[in-house]
User: Fold this.
Amino acid sequence: MLEDLGTAARMRLMEFVCSFAWADLEVNAEERAFVRELIGRLALDETERARVEGWLKSPPGPENIDPTQIPVADREAFLEAIHGVVEADGEIHQEEAESLAVFRQLLP
Assistant:
């Protein structure tokens, strides 16, 4: 699934994943590890990696975080990755659960 994403979709995915990592206002070590593993699986280049690392220090802005803009063919990959980061630390915080519920509702 992830290997089918184009370059722009991979970065949009990472932006969503990092946004969800910030849902409880902190990114813990397990979430960072998950994001970094995902960076490797997506084979992001150095510029893309640096951008994602920046999102681990400060959350991405909301301007590109619109679930309705995710192509239908990519939705399963996005959901899988988002679930992964939300569950990375072994517990789902209330803020994460609420964000995930809203995300699912907004997918057309």
Summary: The chain has a mean pLDDT of 92.
